[in-house]
Amino acid sequence: xxxxxxxxxxxxxxxxxxxxxxxxxxxxxxxxxxxxxxxxxxxxxxxxxxxxxxxxxxxxxxxxxxxxxxxxxxxxxxxxxxxxxxxxxxxxxxxxxxxxxxxxxxxxxxxxxxxxxxxxxxxxxxxxxxxxxxxxxxxxxxxxxxxxxxxxxxxxxxxxxxxxxxxxxxxxxxxxxxxxxxxxxxxxxxxxxxxxxxxxxxxxxxxxxxxxxxxxxxxxxxxxxxxxxxxxxxxxxxxxxxxxxxxxxxxxxxxxxxxxxxxxxxxxxxxxxxxxxxxxxxxxxxxxxxxxxxxxxxxxxxxxxxxxxxxxxxxxxxxxxxxxxxxxxxxxxxxxxxxxxxxxxxxxxxxxxxxxxxxxxxxxxxxxxxxxxxxxxxxxxxxxxxxxxxxxxxxxxxxxxxxxxxxxxxxxxxxxxxxxxxxxxxxxxxxxxxxxx
Amino acid sequence: xxxxxxxxxxxxxxxxxxxxxxxxxxxxxxxxxxxxxxxxxxxxxxxxxxxxxxxxxxxxxxxxxxxxxxxxxxxxxxxxxxxxxxxxxxxxxxxxxxxxxxxxxxxxxxxxxxxxxxxxxxxxxxxxxxxxxxxxxxxxxxxxxxxxxxxxxxxxxxxxxxxxxxxxxxxxxxxxxxxxxxxxxxxxxxxxxxxxxxxxxxxxxxxxxxxxxxxxxxxxxxxxxxxxxxxxxxxxxxxxxxxxxxxxxxxxxxxxxxxxxxxxxxxxxx
Lengths: 437, 270
Ligand SMILES: Nc1ncnc2c1ncn2[C@@H]1O[C@H](COP(=O)(O)OP(=O)(O)OP(=O)(O)O)[C@@H](O)[C@H]1O
Ligand SMILES: [Mg+2]
Hints:
The structure holds two protein chains of two kinds. Chain A contains 17 helices and no strands. By secondary structure, chain A is an all-alpha fold. Chain B is α/β, with parallel strands linked by helices. Chain B is globular and about 65 Å long. Chain B starts with 15 loop residues before the first strand and ends with a helix. Chain A binds chain B through residues 4-5, 9-13, 220-221, 223-224, 226, 300, 303-306, 309-310, 312-317, 319-327, 383-384, and chain B through 62, 64, 83-85, 88, 94, 96, 98, 100-105, 109-110, 113-116, 118, 122-124, 127-128, 130-131, 143-146, 148-149, 153. The complex binds adenosine-5'-triphosphate and magnesium ion.
């Protein structure tokens, strides 16, 4: 970063002679900020691991942690786009509440009277309605913001209050349960996971994809004669990526179904249990698969599609975007539609985990989601932010919260720590930026 | 109403004609009843003091601002330009005085802003955009190498080169250059002058705004002088001297109307 402001002649990063650690990292073209966040996350996990004598790092805890963070992480990816384009969405928590309650009302009240309980099609219809509702509500707020010009802070503050009221009206003021028996698998748990074999297959597919992407990008750059990373850096990146993916699968697969659940399953399937019980590997939980899918799709949207480019251009300089002929209003409205869809996905996980809709589902999400995006490097000045950063931000927060609760600290203490981390992370970032420029 | 000011070329309609344009910002009447035209392969210099209304007039043609009244004709056809997309669709490209770059994006992303190249799946083809950017920038600033850095980290001149590259890359018929060389070094300025001459031979019409009288005198075929929102006069270069143009800019009067005392006051100041 230092050579940006320096007087050195124009030079491509990573082509300098010296070989300090900084240069080596630069040669891999890794985002230093993301690298720092991965380190911070590792330190937090290891720290809690040591403090709990290793217990914290057991597969079951790592899996629970990641599933708990999934809902916030998914919405945080959309919040990146919203904040990058100089807006804010305070309504996400209440939107999750409305959509979660809609799922519950459909599956517990409406379907039993119409199509019947646990029909294979039921959960799909519910999900489709939820996604449509999310897109509609998001689009409605986005329209008021982009075309009528009411500040997003005001519109979504209205949403925060109003939609929570809608939850009460929808539910008649009580918890609504249960959800469809297939739908609840979206929430994870031993049954809501991929299982050992499937998890390995997914892991291997991801590894192949990583290697292909590295190779394809190198081939493209070669074709145009652009500078490429040194070969050792490519191999290193590929190896680290694959080892990480396979390591994660291994952790997920070392969590075995609890004995009671396993023997229930054996009885239901008529399998004779071996001595010591049936050993079933849980594998990757569905919520985690959904986070991975959303992360890939959103990264693709943000960096490889026109829409993402326009969002970032608008955030960097709204006038320039307008003068370049970008339909800025429609672009802004789309960020809110996207946000609504992500809230619907998140609501499915949250409500499936509870097997129903509660009045406070999603309450307080807006703050965690914004914090995750900001810890992940999204700037309120607009134009800057990354999807992987936001997901790491969500993971950092969730690790802290879960670690603290694991050590017996209650949620007020967790909030205090998370808030300190938020301010320190943003403070460090601004300090670095001021020093860098 | 201002037919006398318009150079009449009966055989061929002008490439662009702006007729009776008015723009007011609240109480400030930034452009008053301006009529101006431009022919293919012609450079029209637009000069005037700070706040004379040059940028505002050109922003109307770029679609960045809507005029309160007035008409725009392209090749004799009345057209409506209500946003930058309309202008671009009519082959009008603009280098804005403010450059209008997204600071957080790199040079190729800025060059193709709003007109990104995509591959067959509709995804951004960043490599093709970088390749094209390298080619255009090679004509303007051959030493430029920072293709993958946010333009925020570029020098003023490099940023200006990116803005110029963006306007010339898309085969404009009409090019608006608002202070294109304000931040450029001597070598880069020379390159832009060459570029203007070359675009001229390709039949492109250019509106050139500049405070550098010599720049304008050197490149322009005709010069329009603006003063407090009005066009003082539009003159062919061979009919005037740079001093006479300066006089018009400062006094807001045609050379013939200037009194001896005003001229003396001007010479004392200059
Ligand atoms: N967006 C705006 N809002 C209000 N007033 C404006 C706006 N843009 C321009 N003006 C006013 O209109 C007048 C003409 O401005 P303009 O930018 O067209 O001048 P200019 O001839 O380009 O000057 P310069 O040589 O300094 O660039 C000025 O008095 C300016 O204050
Ligand atoms: Mg101006």
